[in-house]
Input
Amino acid sequence: MLLPILLLISTISLAEAGKFTPKKYELELTPGFNGDNSFTGNTKIHVYVTDSVEEFDLHVSKDLDVEKVIFWTAKTFDSKFNPVLKGNDATFKKDGDKIHVTLSAPITQADIAMKGFIEIAYKGKAGKKGANKGLFLTNDVDYETNLKNGNAIHLFPILEDVGAPLSLYIITPPRAAVEIERIDGENLIKAQRGVEGKELISNYFHTGSQKVKTSSLQFKIKAPTV
Output
């Protein structure tokens, strides 16, 4: 009799467990052109939440060095109608190709009434010529990506590979070039803007309201011309 009761309790606990679901992805990548193939990244995952969440997993390659995870919340607006953001550092532990994140306090829908997102700062190294996953070199200086078939986690941390509106920022020197392929026959909206305080350019792409998977992205980064 005890076993069925334990199974019932376990089933109820799973049913009541809260969950984060991606609402929007903001992906920032800064590749290096100094010969060591390094890159830095910053990912923001805007979320929906069911019930209450205090712990969750992020899918991210063990080869990426996650430096910080912060959960940002906004319950109100300021006088200019901007969300008043409050960030709290989270603790995390690596477990193969994922990290287990523990928040400083549980998050409910009320906490993110105006906005709520996970921010992950990390760094890594691109694969050498001949590699075929994540970000890799196609010659001595130019980069390409392959994010399909589970390879997205080698470049971007994700909650899950589901469709959501997506913004991509690739930070490069002014004379570099970024080429991005169409997604599902659609061109991404593109813009360029300067990076405040730095001699760099933000190559900005976004899908508008169109929902796409992170694994659908495919782009090339050409080294700066002299």
Observations:
- The CA atoms of residues 54 and 106 lie 4 Å apart.
